[in-house]
Every structure is written in C-alpha cells, then in structure tokens.
Amino acid sequence: MKRTAIYFLFAVVCYPVAFAWCGMLIANEPFHSDESAASSLDSSSRGFRVSEYNWTVSPKLPSSLAVGPNTITLPNCPKGLSTNDHFLYIAGTGIPEAVKVTVVNCTPGAGGTISLVATSVHGDGYTISSATGGIKEAWEDAHGVLVLPPGHIATMYAPLHLEKSNAYMDLSGATLVCNVPNNGPCVKIGNDSNPGAYSNITITNLTCKPGTKSTGPCLEDNAQHTRILGMTAMGNPGSYFGYYIQTDNDQSMEISALNTNSTTALRCDMSFCGSAVYNPAGPDNAAVGWIHDSNISMGCSGNGVDWQGGNDLRLSNVILQAYSQWGLRFNRTANGADSRVVYNKVHNERGNCSNPWGNVGAAGTIMQGGALESDLQQSGGATPEFKINGTTDTTLYHYYVQAINSVGSSNVLLAGYVRNGPGTINRAHAVSVVFPSIPNAKTCNLFRINADANGGDFPFGTPAAIQVATGLPCSNRSVNTFTDDVESPSSVTVSGSATWFPDLPYWPGGIILGGGNSTNPYQMSRYIGPGPVGFPLIEAGLGYGSYYSNGAGWFTAGQLSFSNNPVPVAPTSLNGIGVYIPNQQPRAVLIPFAAANSRFPRPIKGVLNLGYFRQPTGTDVITLLDQSYDATLGSASHRPGAGPRDTAISVDSGLAWRDPSSVSSYVDSLADGVNWKERLTATLKLLKVPVNAPAYQTATNCASATSAAGCGSAAAGSVVIAPGATTLTVNTTAVTDKSQIFLQEDTTRGTALAVTCNTTRGRTYTVTARNLGTSFTITASAAPVIDPACLSYHIVN
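Request: output the structure for the sequence above.
Response:
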C-alpha cells in the first residue's frame, strides 16, 4: 500500500476536526508521500541523501548575467527545482547573491532553462548552486516530507521556504549555518501574503548556527499550527541572530523541547537585544502560542520571550533563566484583546547577568496589559542595587520613581535600593541612581525612603521628607541617571491614588504590571496566582501596597487575586482583591457556601472564618469603607487605628455595626436610600413597619410619691396627687413640644409608690401645662380624700 493512501486517509479523517489534533496525528510519523520518495532514503541512516541535491553548475548560456531578468540554460537540470519561493546562489564572479527563481522549464536529468532576476552583474565564469545546501530541492522532490541524515551541514544563503500543508521535516543531526542577508530568516514556514495558506507543518531537531551578523530570526513561522520540536541553537564568534524563533500570525503555534543551550548566538547590546522567541507587534501578527518542555537559558546574552502581538500564550514546564533584560515580555495593547499569559511550572531566574543598558536590573515578567496566571511563586528578575560614592554603612534605602503626565501621575515604582548606605547621604556619600525611561511621561519625581526606619513601607497619605528630585526628564532615552547627594529631602505628601497608568515596556523587578498609557484603570495589567517570592511585583498605577520582606526581595500589594499568599495583602482602592477584565466592572471574589447537593447533618461553621477573638471591645472585624485609606496603605501592617467615620463591622460586648451617618435595614428592596424599613441615626431610631413585641420597656421608669414628682428623664412612671390637692407637677426632661402624654389612674401601684392608693372612682385627669424639657402639669376633676390618687403616665415623642 502506498503511503499516499495513508496521507489522504488522514486528510479525510482530520478535515472536520481541529487542525491542532490532526497535525499531531500526521506529524507523529515521518512518512513519505509516495514510493519514489521513500526509495531515496538512505538504508543505513533513514535520511534523505541531501548531498545529491546540493548542486553547482557553471552555465555557458548566457556567458554572463546582467542586472535584471535573465534566462539561463542548464545542460542537466537538478531535481527539485520550483518557483515556490525557491532561491539559487550566484557566485564565482561579481558580488555573490541569492536570487529567486521565477520560471522553471527544466526536466530533471535533461536540459532546460530557468529564469531569475539578478541585482548584480556576473561575468563569464559565474556559478549557480542551491542557496540552501540542497535542502529546498530535496524538500520539493520529497513533496514536503523529508528526513535529513546525521552530520549534514548546510550553508544557507537564502531562506529555506517550507510551503506545503501537512508536511514534515526532520533535521536530526544536521546543522544549518545561516548566511542569509538583509536580516532574513534562515527557515521560513508559510508566507507573508496569506498566513492561512499552509497548515500542520512540523519541523524537528533543527540546529541553527549564525554565519553572519543578523537581527533576523533563525526560523520564522507564518503558517497555521506549526510545530517546532527539539530546536537547538549554536554560537559562532563574530556572528549572531536577532531571534531564534519568530512567529507572526500562527493561531496555534507549538514549540517543544527548545534548547538555547546557554549559548551566546543572539545580538544583545545597548541598541538591540534579541529574544529566543519573538512575536512582533501589529494586527497581522496576532499569534497564539504554546511553549513547553523547553530550556530557554540565554547565557546572559539576550532575553527569553518577547510576545508583542498580544494574543494568548501558554508556557508549561519551561526554564526562563540567565537573561539580560527580561524572562518574558507580553504586550496586550498591540491588538486590544483581553489576552493572557499562563505559566504552568515555569522556572524564572535571572541569574548573575548584566543588562546592556547598565545598572537597571532585569524583569522576570513584563505585562503591557492583559493578565498573567501563574501556579508558582518564583518571580525572577532583579531589582538593581545602586552604587555608593563614599563610605558605606548599614542603612537600607529604597528609591522610587513617580511618572508625571499632563493627565495625572502614576503609582510610585520601586527603581532600586542601597543595601549598605551611609547614615546621612550628602556630597561626600552620594548614590548613583539609574532607572529606565517611561514612555509618554513628561517628567518624573524621585523619592528616597529609609527602609529601616519605615519598615519598608512607602509613607502614602502623610507628610514625609522623602523627595530628592522633581521634574526629572525620563522619557526620551533608554535610561536616566541622577546623583543623589541631597542631605535634606523635601517634605511631601504622596497620594496612594494614581490617576495615570503608564505603559512599562521595561522596568526592573519580579512581575511588572503596566497600564497601557491610560487614565482607565481597566487597562491595567493584572496578576492571578500565588504571592510572588523573590523580587518585587511592580504596578504602574494601582500598586498601593507596601513592600514586604520576603527572601531576597520585596513585593507590593496590588490588583491581585492571590490564591496562596502567606502575607495579608491590602486591596487597591478600585479593584479590591477581585480579578477584573479590562473595560468591565471588577469581578467578585466568590467563596461558595457549599456544593449544590451538599447536606449538613448538623450546623457547621461558615466558609469565612476570621479565627480567634481575644481583643478588647471596640475593635473592627471588617472595615467596609475607610475614612483615611491612604494612611492605611502607608502603615506597616495596613491596620492602623480605626476612625469614627469608618464604616465597619465591629465587636464591643457582642457584634456591632457602625457608620458615620446611619445604619439601615432593607427587605425586598435595593439600598436606594428610600425604601428602608429600619434606620438608626445619631439621634433617632426610625421604623416604617409595625412593632410587635411581647413587652414594651422604656429606658427608665419613674416611681415618685412626692408633690412635684421628680422623674429625671423618664418617659414613663407612676406618681401621686396628694389628698386634698387637684394638681401635680411631674418633672421630666422627656417633655417636648411634640410629646403625647397619656394618663390613667392605677390603684395597683401602691406598693411601688409605698402608699395606699385611693380607690374612689369617677375622677378625670388632664394635662394642663408643659414646660419643654422640664415638666408637665396634671389637673384632677376632684381632689382625692384620705388617700392619694395613684396615676401612671407615658410619653410618646
């Protein structure tokens, strides 16, 4: 049975289903498309005899080549010639160049002609050969399924274009030495005009070695569901790539077993520093990628991953280490989508590397928008330690930069620290501060805090002598420098509420969350995962928290959803600890009470449990609204003294609710300020519903048998009118102009009044006078005889 039949069987089965799955089925076996191609396999190596295709000829017609179109006669046409982005190499005379074949009228083994366009003059004695060491010709002849033999070394003078769907190339043991001019790729999968034209191309065990100075990639992918398996990089002194892999608009790209081999094969200097994997910016470069089981160890020459297209990216079982500037940089702002990076078992470690920009540290992960989801706490990166010009000591200083724009100011960004600083900084003991530029910032302010004295906290919301410079230029250069010799910093009050959220294409620290150059907090990047351990989590706009000592560095509180954070983290003023999607409201923090089918055999404790209570009365359990949020954020523990104007759930001798204006209860209504059923203010208890109670009690109850009864502030009580008298003044401050005073004679109150009550009936009693806040007067229709008349009153205001 021919392999061709198997090929079409896979094609039929795979058509209705996802290409991602089909591509894996097809590519797992390096089959050949027909028996003739299979017969060309070397029986000992199971590799294609590429040497048979690495041809060179010296044509006689024409005897020389002019600039422009040329048609060349070949006496014996090589196999595999095509017009599928097929390049040949012209050398021997003139300036050597790789040119594209435009017309092929050439039968293998027979004579024929080819046409091409030269850019240089080539005189008599010129040669034409494969520009890809015979690999392109073998690929075309094998119909897109090719296995190279071990030890093959191909010098590439032009890109090797792979433009066949459901194709496979195994380069095990072969090395491509890339001499491609004009920063072109050594291998190009797909084409630029239509990224969807080709799909399911697998290339395995590619070893790339630069043969010239290029800022282009070794391999560029612009097809669909390309699988790059087992790629290795090799260094070559004096030569370099810009990137190892560049993916453009592949919507299901897979990289597996990439091994950068700690080699120094990338260009990385002050003006250009490449990355192992690169996705360019732009709407036509919205790749979706999965990198797994790879060792992206950069040998301190280059960066890990630079994903500028803005679509989703997942890393699984990946090492990001020994990088110059960042482990991974992601830019969602390029296409405006709500995309994310997912880390699954990613080791991120900067190592003992230097940044070509100078003493500005490195970033573990830079998020220019979007979300980072991680299952590990290791943050990577490095916050720079600034140099001291003078005597060292033991003081720890932190330096922060705040960017200023015409629309507002950013959060303060930790720029670096001094570990062994002098007790006093001055001209004799100055610090060299270096920090990166911030795009679109007009100026920057620089702050210095004594971290030992402040517990590592930035003093938000309170006056502090921390400002060492203001109005610094900070957006028109790669890095900014300032010599801090300021002995007495200016006293300023820095608000914790940022009003501008700048983009941060580079900033040192563990996880860098940029803000998209926006006044909209929903453009902020976000982090979802365990509390990072290592170097700081820095936020452009919303990181209002303090720095906690945690191993080798610090991290800030911020717009985070921490699933396993051992240190309590204060929420931000806008988004709390919930996760949010840009341009939408913040998501809630959901704590399910129970599974849908749960049954509790007995009452159990709740899903939110704040633990032991051993505090004195007056402590807030949950602060709902903070009267001085900046001061809270600036405190060491984020738990300063409570204020009377906070809204909180508290405890005194039991549960207590408090608010500076009122506490209301609603039933079957939104809290609209109108439809409450019960409201407590500082002066009133208001009810809009009937009261049904087994007993009614006043705060105090008076019992006075004296004339001019003394009842204090009692709104109810028992009094007497003496024998022979018809009036009684009751002194109580409960009387108002709105008081309704009710009277009745009660002959059973004798014991409480220590008298014998008159039992004669028929008298009536009237309130005949009131003095507001003082007293009211009772007048009887007739005077009691022998025994006093016993009366009860109650006042309703």
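The two ends are 103 Å apart (CA to CA).
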